[in-house]
């Protein structure tokens, strides 16, 4: 069972690197990958990242706390998980509803989950790094790379017209910024 989880995380790591290095190519192949997979993007991609961030918060609490206590570590971990999961689900909901209302494009729940899960890759990665190295606050600026990923997601995955793509990208960035604000967790 553990080897299966390790293989799963290796696959997620490969996908995360692929979307960061080549978002255009990744977004083009994403629709075929989604058709083959029976598991949605939330279970396949976002949930393992959320668990990784939560475990990292738990472990690093003991490294950076002057007087570590198990109760506070569990409380911090629980708060971390709830804020990340609720921020993700809120971003999916708002992405779906705003796309339907603003662009009159009927986006399915699975498509909204996929857009938010994969475009949040950079934000998830930043949170893992921030949990391990809390002094690297300047790395948060890399969250702007999410805009670049959303640009390709809107064209190659959702097929939004070019004249609406910038507006979609900015509205979705607003939602992923909400997600990032939910992830503002102090690690000390």
Topology:
Elements: H1 2-21, H2 23-36, H3 41-64, H4 70-103, H5 109-119, H6 121-132, H7 145-157, H8 162-182
Keywords:
mainly alpha, 79% helix, 8 helices, 188 residues
Describe the structure.
With 188 residues, the chain is mostly helical. It is built from eight helices and no strands. Helix 4 packs antiparallel against helix 8 (162-182).
The biggest beta sheet is recorded as:
none
Label the overall shape.
globular
Instruction: Return the average pLDDT rounded to an integer.
Output: 81
Order of helices and strands: HHHHHHHH
Helix coverage percent: over 70%
User: Which percent range describes the beta-strand content?
Assistant: under 5%
> How far apart, in Å, are the first and last alpha carbons?
33 Å
Number of helices: 8
Give the C-alpha Rg: 17 Å
The secondary structure category is mainly alpha
């Amino acid at each position: 069972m553990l080897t299966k989880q390790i293989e799963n995380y290796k696959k997620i790591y490969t996908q995360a690197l692929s979307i960061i290095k080549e978002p255009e190519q990744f977004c083009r192949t994403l629709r075929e990958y989604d058709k083959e997979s029976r598991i949605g993007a939330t279970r396949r991609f976002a949930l393992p990242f959320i668990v990784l961030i939560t475990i990292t918060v738990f472990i690093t609490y003991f490294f950076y706390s002057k007087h570590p206590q198990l109760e506070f570590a569990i409380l911090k971990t629980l708060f971390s998980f709830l804020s990340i999961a609720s921020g993700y689900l809120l971003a999916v909901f708002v992405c779906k509803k705003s796309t339907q209302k603003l662009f009159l494009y009927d986006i399915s729940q699975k498509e909204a989950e996929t857009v938010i899960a994969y475009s949040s890759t950079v934000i998830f990665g930043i949170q893992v790094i921030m949990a391990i190295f809390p002094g690297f606050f300047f790395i948060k600026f890399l969250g702007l790379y999410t805009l670049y990923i959303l640009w390709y997601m809107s064209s190659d995955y959702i097929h939004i017209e070019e004249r609406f793509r910038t507006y979609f990208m900015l509205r979705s960035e607003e939602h992923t910024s909400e997600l990032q604000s939910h992830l503002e967790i102090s690690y000390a």
